[in-house]
Amino acid sequence: MTHTLLRGRLLSFLRAPQDLGDSGSYFYESDGALLIKDGLIVACGAYDTVSAQAPANAVTVDHRPHLIMPGFIDMHLHFPQMQVIASYAANLLEWLNTYTFPEECRFVESAHAARIATHFYDELVRHGTTTAVAYCSVHKTSADAFFAEALRRNMRMVGGKVMMDRNAPQGLLDTPQMGYDETRQIIAQWHRKGRNHVAITPRFAITSTPAQMEATQALAREFPDLHIQTHLSENHDEIKFTCELYPEAIDYTDIYARYGLLGDKTLFGHCIHLSDREADAMSEAGSVAVHCPTSNLFLGSGLFPLKALARREKPVRIGVATDIGGGSSYSMLRTMDEAYKIQQLLGERLNPLESYYHMTLGNARSLSLADRIGTLDVGSDADIVVLNAAATPAMALKMEVVKTLPEELFLLQTMGDDRAIVETYVAGVAAKSAI
Ligand code: GUN
Ligand code: ZN
């Protein structure tokens, strides 16, 4: 394969930024270049240095004056909810029962699942997201469609068939044995095929009987390297109902702990209303709290204490995500704009460096995949986003007075969406322009 040389302004994080002036937390090159071969970044640095390493037949793409960053990572969303987005409901449980569960029933049809999978990846790429962690429906057909399309597009995706055996319509229920067997089949068929990762996915404690939680525990023991994803502490009524279903547990987090599901590969969506004890337990286990700001606002679930959880004596690992279709935008820029506003309401500051850290290296670390994605480091997958902070007339006008990189990032986050995504490269191949 030939080499590709991308020229532009490079930005990649080295560690979590301490404050807005923490220029040591990132690598920035104002006239930079990336050299890409066979889907990997083989050189990164100043244009003069990197272009000197490129062979004569390298294809050069000049993205100046735009910013070149690692592709965004979305840590939590629901593939079968593309037609649930923008559903008018008072709260989480009403939204699930009225819109979400009926819609997910349609994914028993493989043709429907395949059609939605095409749209799903188109939207991710359109919004600059190159890796996402997704819930499929209960049906194996939905996971097959999800992973087949990821393989076709050569995208690094994490996903799993949800296991759910109660408190949902008949068409959405498996059994402990079925959930176990089908998850094993999906692992055998799809895990590490191309860039696919299968996640063990009990939907949440409300929709799993104790017997299904035991089956989940068996899977987690058999496949200790796999991610586990589920929901935790999203909404007060949800928490109350969950604790009634598991009266022996001391709190919601303890339910998952009792079934051996608290570990450093476990991704808990939401975690808005955790007690100190629960946050300590998560911290000790190295589990990740995945913040889904547009969803939390849309469903009125609550204000996630991101900064407070991160600065505890026992800090909790954080991820950020869209939570489509409870979430209201596919854009990680829109997502971090809402995350910023939630911290404002809590009297906290989330600075733009932190936001971009979370969307890239932060999420990659929370996924234990930072050796492959989330940076522009040599050897990483060439999953890349190119950003234009003057993408709309209003943004261009504001850009006239923007002087610093953090100001530019903040403008992109505050006003940007898919229009600010000039190009998305998946394993070194331009994917947005190919949609
Ligand atoms: N809890 C269990 N399932 C879901 C879901 O699909 N979306 C959200 N936001 N919360 C959930
Ligand atoms: Zn969710």
List keywords for this structure.
16 strands; binds guanine; 435 residues; 15 helices; alpha/beta; binds zinc ion; 9-stranded parallel β-sheet; 7-stranded mixed β-sheet
Biggest sheet layout: 9 strands, parallel
What integer value in Å does the Rg equal? 21 Å
Helix-strand makeup class: alpha/beta
What is the mean pLDDT? Answer: 98
> What separation lies between the terminal Cα atoms?
22 Å
Q: Give the total of beta strands.
A: 16
What portion of the residues fall into strands of 2 or more residues?
15-25%
**Helical content band:** 25-40%
Task: Label the overall shape.
Answer: globular
Residue runs with pLDDT of under 50 for 5 or more positions? none
What are the distinct ligands in this entry?
guanine, zinc ion
**Helical segment count:** 15
